[in-house]
Amino acid sequence: MIDMKENSLKLFCILLFFCISVSAQRETAHWFFGVNAGLNFNTGTPIVLDAGQVNTLEGCSTISDANGALLFYTDGVTVWNRMHEIMPNGTDLIGSLSSTQSCIIIPNPANSNIYYIFTTDVVDSYDIISGQSNGFNYSIVDMTLSGGMGAVTMKNINLLPNTSEKVSAALSSDGNFWVITHRNNQFFSFKVTSAGVNTIPVVSNTAHSVPDYKNIRGNMKISPNGTKLAIVHTLFEPDQAGSLYLYDFDSTTGFVTNEDFLGDDLMFYGVEFSSNSTKLYASGKLFSGGNSFANMQLQQYDVTSTDVPNTKYIVYDYVQGLVISSLAGSLQLGMDKRIYHSLPGNRISTVNTPNLLGAACDFDFESVDLGLHFARFGLPAAVQSYYESIATIENFCFGDETTFAIASENDITGIDWNFGDPASGNNSMSSVISPTHTFSNAGSFTVTANVTFSNVPNQQFTEIVVIQETPTINSLFTIEQCDADDNDSDGLSIFNLQQAVAIIEEDNGNSNIDVLFFENITDAQMNENTLTNDFYANSVNEQILYARVFSYVDCFAITQVRLKVNSNTNLGLHTTIDVCELNGTSISVTQIEDTLENDFPGATIGIYNTRNDALLQNNQLTNFSPVNVNTNGELFFRVSYGTECGFIGSIEINIVGQPIIGDQEAFLCTGNGTSVELSFEENFASYVWSTNEITPAITVTETGVYTVTVSNSAGCEKQISYVVTEEPPLTIDRIEVADFQAVNTIKIVVADENDPENITYSINGGNSFSENNEFVNIYPGIYDIVVRRGECNAASETILVGGFPKFFTPNGDSFNDTWQLLQKEYYPNATIELYDRYGKNLNYIKADTEWDGTYKGARLPSGDYWYKLTLENGRIIKGNVTLKR
User: Fold this and answer.
1) CA–CA separation, 477 and 380 (whole Å)
2) The pLDDT of residue 8
3) Cβ partners under 8 Å of residue 873, min gap 6
4) CA–CA dist 75, 813 (Å, integer)
5) PKD domain location, by residue (predicted)?
6) Which of 178, 327, 361, 533 counts the most CB atoms within 10 A of its CB?
7) Per-residue pLDDT, 29
8) How many other C-beta atoms lie within 10 A of the C-beta of residue 57?
């Protein structure tokens, strides 16, 4: 997909012109590459395709029929038919998805149903010890099989035991094809004729050699006219480096000669010729010392020069860090005669007019959108001759005579033209080398020229010419602006010219037109001294600018744009507004707009950080825009009535925070008929539950997520989620009892508890609960321990806290007359030993008996006496008791 608004002066949608042998026309109409990326060039503008199955790091190839209908495509390993299904026998070709130019598809010159897939070598396939690899191979596709979907009949027929990751192809002078690959210091040219692939290559030896198989990466291309060959060597050993060479190619003999070294300043990777074969482009990484690479460059060379290396022009510098790989991406001509540059991402870049020298080649960074799919480092290889241009075409405006100027290195003896325009009444023309034609209407026309040569086979050339309408536009538009400063009557302000663009587009009914602005009519007519900034400060009130309106640069209309400044539009400080803060980083702009709309009914309100932004309608704030309220707590607003600026003013902002509360949770007890109340400790001004209730608390009987919007007294709202889940399992891990102490304690430990704050504990059977799991000063006795989560009783256990009375008074009043073990029935086999203060053993009794304070029948005096309790489990407890008379 092409972003027309970003490419206002481009010619790419105007002209398609390419060379084919005899009946071929649109073999390169489809591309499939990268990660499921696809483009269809049949309309003259590449359209995104979504069904592609290819997923390749680098090389690939696609072929369509003479009418531009997709036939099949491959990554050098798998072959997919036009329904994007794998062809029968279409797997395990021994190309590689990580080979620079892994494959290329060549038709049989005499049989439109037979195709040959040539696959190249890859660094990864080389055996370090033996030096053996996959080599250079070809496979055969027969399109008559599988119901016309095609099948691979033979595959991996070896032509060379070792080669490089490079392949290119072009027409031979006799109408057949040459397929060329490279290894070390040799080029191998294989001829494809009606008889098939000649397995004996034409071998050309060159001075430059690349012996290390680790350095076989990089692209190679034949020029579309079949006279030149360019090759890049992407070197990884012994250091990262690169080189670029240009050769002559003889399309009659297949020989490669006349080596011309162009440069080694980049780690070169991609290479391509322009469609008229006069310009050469190369991509590569630029080194900044050692093996570290910095920027990546796209370079241009003039192939027609007697000193090609010195014609180098840097088309574009990709900034450091934009591409992290050492591979600089492939270059490939398209059917529209643009050169495409592929790097990882969902957009690819273009050279829009590559036949032109220097900056006129018109590079567009990431100009083609691939939709949801991604490019990598490769683009589809094809016969380079399909892209040849031999015509210069001019005048594409409806009503003008379109001219076709033909130039060719071969001797033309005749041309039969068909302009694809029967409605013109002058659709065909013979024997005119460079004709003119006035097309009957605007639109796309397929023009064919059957060219007869005296020295080479006849060829058919096809071009798609897009005739453009000159926009019909009103002669005058007015845009109104508020005054820019405190001098509210000087008629001076700053205008956003994009506002004028929007008005002109609406009037024309076309959002794809382009608009350029000029200060005088002469500049507008000559397309000179364009105003390059969208923001323009007028010099007088109602100043006139001139707008050049066009879809195609030469088909334009000129209209006037009046810049009118409305006086008395500066409101100054208008009011103070309490505004809610959102998320701690922004404020509720909608709240400000709603307040101001009450003051300016029927108007459009925009809120801005600065007065200048309000004037230019630039950086308008939304609810979640970062808001920089200045030291005076001030923001600016613009009141618009249609396209007219009504007022500019400021407002003081008093920021009020949202309610401070987080999401909540509650547990619904297990069992039928249970419910839980959802409420808050905080009080709010209003509540709106997802159940439509507006009370501070609600009772629910089902699990789920309940939302409630609460607001404070300033009207600031916050939505809270209340998550209600079924009571999770809860078990008591252990109860730690410290009894027979001066101060007895109980500690309750719950197993695997992640939310201790929601757990409460009771030791008296559930009558009262505490959030503390430790209880102190516990009197000896039996205790029913209950633990619950929320309001749910989840776990319980009964425990015994042992102990003795701290004193007794054996005075015969029937109160505390004896001393005994409390809950003695739970200690049936325990024994007690009693001692006086000197350690004399006074008694030895069982725990289920009582002591009356006597020793051998004699009453003992008041004082402290000591005991030793031995429990059945062997536990020994020592302490003292006070006897009082």
Assistant:
1) 48
2) 36
3) none
4) 109
5) 401-452
6) 178
7) 94
8) 20
- Any idea which of 219-228, 391-400, 775-784 has the lowest mean pLDDT? 391-400
- SS3 for 403? strand
The Cα 300–Cα 281 span in angstroms is 5
Cα gap 501→486, rounded to integer Å: 28
CA distance 350 to 672: 70
For the chain, helix, strand, coil in percent to 5 are 10, 45, 45
pLDDT of residue 24: 42
- Residue 593: which H helix or E strand, with range? helix 589-599
Could you give the CA distance from residue 371 to residue 37 in angstroms, rounded to a whole number? 8
Tell how far CA 509 is from the center of its chain: 32
Is 387 strand, coil or helix? Answer: helix
pLDDT at 584: 63
Q: What is the pLDDT of residue 628?
A: 62
CB-neighbour burial class of residue 202 (10 A; exposed 0-12, middle 13-18, buried 19+): middle
Q: Shortest CA distance to 167 belongs to which of 220, 204, 203?
A: 220
Per-residue pLDDT reduced to its tens digit, 760-774: 889 987 778 888 899
> Mean pLDDT over residues 25-43, rounded?
93
Q: Using an 8 Å Cβ cutoff, are 230 and 280 in contact?
A: yes
User: Could you read off the pLDDT of 852-868 as tens digits, one per residue?
Assistant: 889 888 888 999 999 99
d(CA 665, CA 672): 20
Q: For the chain, what is the mean pLDDT? A: 87
- The SS3 assignment for 478 reads strand
Both structure tokens of 17: 């012109």
What distances in angstroms separate CA 859 from CA 806, 818, 843, 883, one per listed residue? 19, 12, 13, 11
Token look-up 């990751």 returns: 165
| Residue range 276-332, pLDDT digits in tens | 899 999 999 887 554 445 688 999 999 999 999 999 999 998 875 555 567 899 999
Alpha carbons 655 and 585: distance in angstroms, whole number: 11
Domains and CATH numbers, the chain: 15-387 (2.120.10.30), 392-467 (2.60.40.10), 476-566 (2.60.40), 570-656 (no CATH), 664-720 (no CATH), 732-801 (2.60.40.10), 807-883 (2.60.40)
Question: Given this model, what pLDDT does residue 3 score?
Answer: 39
Among 145-159, 203-217, 277-291, whose mean pLDDT is lowest? 277-291
pLDDT in tens, 648-680: 888 888 888 788 889 998 888 877 678 888 999
pTM more than 0.85: no
**Residue 433: φ, ψ to 5°:** -70, -45
pLDDT score recorded for residue 140: 98
For residue 204, what are its two tokens?
Answer: 């050309």
**Nearest-CA neighbor of 449 among 435, 462, 440, 436?**
462
**Alpha-carbon distances, residue 812 vs 219, 821, 852, 865 (angstroms):** 118, 20, 10, 20
By three-state DSSP, how is residue 675 classified? coil
Mean pLDDT lowest for which of 63-67, 84-88, 154-158? 63-67
Q: Which amino acid is at 346?
A: N
Rounded to the nearest angstrom, the gap between the alpha carbon of residue 726 and the centroid of all alpha carbons in its chain is 40
How big is the CA angle at 785 (ends 782 and 789), to the nearest 5 degrees? 170
Going by C-alpha positions, the residue among 255, 259, 206, 203 that lies closest to residue 230 is 259
Give the total residue count for the chain: 885
Rounded to whole angstroms, the Cα distance separating 626 from 442 reads 48
CB 346 within 8 A of CB 372: yes
Say how far apart CA 384 and CA 403 lie, in whole Å.
26
Q: Tell me the average pLDDT across 531-550.
A: 92
What tokens does 1 get?
Answer: 């997909």
